[in-house]
Amino acid sequence: MPYAAAAVLVLVIHLAFVLFVVFGACLVLRRPRLAWLHLPAAGWGVFVELSGRGCPLTGLENLLRLRAGLAGYADGFVEHYIVSLLYPEALTRATQCVLAGVVLAINLVLYARLWRRRRPATLPTHTQAIPAPRPKKPK
C-alpha cells in the first residue's frame, strides 16, 4: 500500500509541475523572482514535448504503480492523463508539437507583458522645459 500512496503523490507532484510549466508565468507576473524557477521548468516542458522523451516522473510513477501491484502505462504522463481528457485519439507527434507551441506561446506572451511592465520608463527628449521669461512691469 505505501507504493500506491507514493505513486499517487508522484502523480500529484507531476500534475502540479505540468500546471506550473503551462501557467507559471501568471505567478511570475505577481512574483517576478519565481522566474528563476519557472523559466527552467518551462524550458524542460518544451524540451520534453519537442524531443518526444518521457519525463522521469512518469518512470517513477510507473515503477511505484508496478510495485504496488497496479498496472503501469506505456505512454507518458501528458498522453495518459491530460491528452486522454482533451483528445479522444492517441497522441501524435504533431499534437506534441502543438502542445509545445501552446506552452511556448502562453509563456512568451506573459513574459513579454512582464518585461514591458518592468523596463524603465523612457526619458523625455529634454529633461525640463525652460520657462518663458516674464514680461517686465513698467515703472
Describe the structure concisely.
With 139 residues, the protein is mostly helical. The protein is built from five helices and no strands. It has one domain (2-118).
Describe the secondary-structure layout.
Blueprint: H1 2-30, H2 35-51, H3 56-67, H4 77-86, H5 93-118
What does this protein structure show overall?
The chain is mainly alpha-helical and 139 residues long. It has one domain. It starts with a helix and ends in a 21-residue tail after the last helix. The longest helix is centred in the first third of the chain and has 29 residues. The protein contains 5 helices and no strands. It is elongated, with a radius of gyration of 26 Å. The model has no long low-confidence stretch (mean pLDDT 78).
